[in-house]
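User: Run a structure prediction on this.
Assistant: Running it now.
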Amino acid sequence: MPEETYVRPTWDEYFMEIARTVAKRATCDRWRSGCVIAKDNRLLVSWYVWSVPWMPHCDEVGHQFKQLTHEDGSVTTHCMRTIHAEQNAICQAAKSGISLQWATVYCKMTPCRTCAMLLIASWIKRVVCEKKYQAAAESEKMFATLGIPLEYFDPTVEQY
């Protein structure tokens, strides 16, 4: 029986696997998400979904749900106790004085509108996601308008 030839992961596969691992630290069981930001094939920063420092976590005290009514009349429910992985990664970079200019972001699903705006304001150059977010349209439009590539490993919508 011939041995399987080892196939080294691409840089995108490598950083996405790290994002999946980082997500395991998340403190909201509704969606355990992680974010990795890399530049020139070097990991700059990573973080995950968790609550405001020194405040209770969803895993400890439960979710803080709020409903959001969209322009089309649809209603979605979101946990507001946590800070998104992308926002936390940006904060970690800021605390350490790390510029995110021209970096690539790896995340579990399409950044929400707020995260997309923060990433754009950080001058990122590319976004790679494992899957789509249920309300990805606004973020996708912003990235496209600015010519920031947005790529998916799997273009299906993440169910959570």
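The CA atoms of residues 141 and 147 lie 10 Å apart.
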